[in-house]
Amino acid sequence: MSHFDVELDTSGLNCPLPVLKARKALSEMTAGQRLHLIVTDAGANQDIPAFSKMTGNPLIETKEQDGKLHFILEKGAA
Amino acid sequence: MAKKLAIIASKGTLDSAYPPFLLASTAIALGFEVKIFFTFYGLQLLNKELNLKVSPLGNPAMPMPVTIPSIIQIIPGLEWFATWMMKRKLKLKGVASLEELRDICIETGVELIACQMTVDLFDFKSEDFIEGISRGGAATFLEFAGDADVTLYI
Questions:
Q1: Counting C-beta atoms within 10 Å of the first and last residue's C-beta, which end of chain A has fewer, N or C?
Q2: What is the CATH number of the domain that holds A18?
Q3: Would residue A15 show up in a list of annotated catalytic residues for this protein?
Q4: Which CATH number does the domain housing residue B113 bear?
Q5: Closest residue, chain B, to A24 (C-alpha)
Q6: pTM (predicted TM-score)
Q7: Is the predicted pLDDT of residue B56 greater than 90, yes or no?
Q8: Exactly one of A1, A15, A20, A31 is catalytic; which is it?
Q9: Pairwise CA distance, residues B50 & B12, whole Å
Q10: Does the pLDDT of residue B65 top 90, yes or no?
Q11: Which residues fall within 8 angstroms of residue B100, CB to CB, at 6 or more apart?
């Protein structure tokens, strides 16, 4: 995986908690920092890219490993 | 300018309480401005103590472990059982509790508006409701909904 500054593991949590927790984590980060988000909610495959697009926090990487989804989100400038 | 989401929450059962709070909290996370207008049975969602229930009675689509004929569903305790079962399932599947979602809505600035007419109609008391809600009527909702990008009646 690419480098990251903050890790957030939402394993076991269902929609919409991963998105809500990602928003909170990103709000406490500075522009350019990267969040490693771990999700087991299968809907996240669509939800996290939508969240990224709508909030201007670019999705750098997506990976599935050991039944979990891993996302690297970069905190946008806005 | 931020997108706007306007929701009317008109139902007060445990299952129907989820969509308004779930969509509102998510919309805030996506940068929307959100207002929920609570009317009729939806006002129960503003009570300090949420005591919402779900019933299989009159709801043939509700999955039950065993099929229970409608005539039997009036027995006392069945509604309690169905509610207990639903709450257990929600927890088991990692779904947020209603209290948790509502708290997130309040913390993140969703405006919660109680319909004044139905508050008066049911003689609900202000002290039964959570803090920080506002009051309004049909025009209050329509003023916001008129400019909203998404409007939902739940």
A1: C
A2: 3.30.110.40
A3: yes
A4: 3.40.1260.10
A5: B29
A6: 0.91
A7: no
A8: A15
A9: 10
A10: no
A11: none
